[in-house]
Amino acid sequence: MVVKEVLKNLGFHFILVDLGEIEIMENLTEEQLNQLKLALLSSGLELMDDKRAILIEKIKTVIIEMVHNSNDLIKINHSDYISEKLKMDYTYLSNIFSEVKGITIQQYIIVHKIEKVKELLMYGELNLTEIAYQLNYSSVAHLSNQFKKVTGFPPSHYKLLKDKRRSPIEEVGN
Question: Taking a C-beta distance cutoff of 8 angstroms, is the pair 122, 166 a contact?
Answer without folding.
Answer: yes
